[in-house]
Design a protein that fits this description.
One of its GO terms (biological process) is transcription elongation by RNA polymerase II. It holds the Pfam family PCI. It is a single chain. The protein is built from twelve helices and three strands, in the order H-H-H-H-H-H-H-H-H-E-H-H-E-E-H. It is mainly alpha-helical. The protein has a three-stranded antiparallel beta sheet with strand order 1-3-2. Strand 2 and strand 3 form a beta hairpin. The longest helix has 26 residues. The two termini are 14 Å apart.
């Protein structure tokens, strides 16, 4: 187990009952969530969910609500079976499906639709902030994959994306024809600053130059949210 997680969990829990330990991990996970420490939040919430008995259905559902949100930020999507079992399909079902297909407009519509349900549970603003970044990142990643599929030439040069070629896909994903090159370039810069893209922008040429390697400038999201 990662040392960071080991240190978090090594807190003298053994003398306490399992119910108390589940409660402890649940609230610690919520605290880490409010701190935007996504990986640690996922660790504690998953521990609480796995160790909460099925006899306490309400408690497992309460734990699952933020856990599904955290996993969505990390690019891991709860199954429809799980959502249906805990009566969460109505809020997460369409949202996760839109995330998988890159329908950014649909995701934001679902967040707005369920805002009054998500906000008291402390996950509305977090999802709005983090999923916007994920949606833009996934859009650019799809574009580079599509470009690679249609370019059969062999080159040692780093992969590149022309900002002009990203505008129309962005307009379609966000259902917003007002999006322009400046908007796309701004989001690329934001993703680079957040560590969600390994790249730099050649502004004079309108080109995004991505890092060489197997990930082509898009490190796994879980590796970005290490703490």
């Amino acid at each position: 187990m990662n040392r960071r997680f080991a240190e978090e969990s090594d807190s003298g829990e053994n003398p306490y009952t399992m119910a108390e330990r589940v409660t402890y991990h649940y609230y610690l996970g919520k605290i880490r969530l409010f701190q935007h420490r996504v990986q640690l939040a996922a660790y504690h919430l998953r521990w609480a969910f796995d160790h909460c008995t099925t006899a306490h259905f309400h408690n497992k559902r309460t734990i699952l609500i933020p856990l599904v949100a955290v996993y969505a930020i990390l690019g891991r999507y709860a199954s429809s079976t799980l959502l249906n079992r805990f009566d969460l399909q109505f809020v997460y079902g369409n949202m996760l499906q839109y995330l998988k297909t890159g329908n950014a407009y649909g995701v934001m519509q679902e967040l707005e639709k369920h805002r009054d349900w998500l906000r008291p549970r402390g996950i509305y603003m977090l999802l709005c902030e983090k999923l916007v970044l994920s949606l833009w990142r996934n859009l650019f990643q799809r574009c580079i994959r599509y470009q690679a599929q249609n370019d059969m030439s062999i080159s040692n040069r780093p992969p590149t994306l022309h900002i002009t070629n990203l505008v129309r896909p962005a307009q379609l994903a966000w259902n917003d024809t007002t999006l322009a090159e400046d908007d796309v370039e701004c989001m690329v810069a934001n993703l680079v600053e957040q560590g969600l893209m390994k790249a730099y922008i050649l502004h004079s040429k309108g080109v995004v130059v991505l890092q060489r390697g197997p990930h082509k400038g898009f490190p796994p999201i879980a590796s970005v949210y290490l703490s």
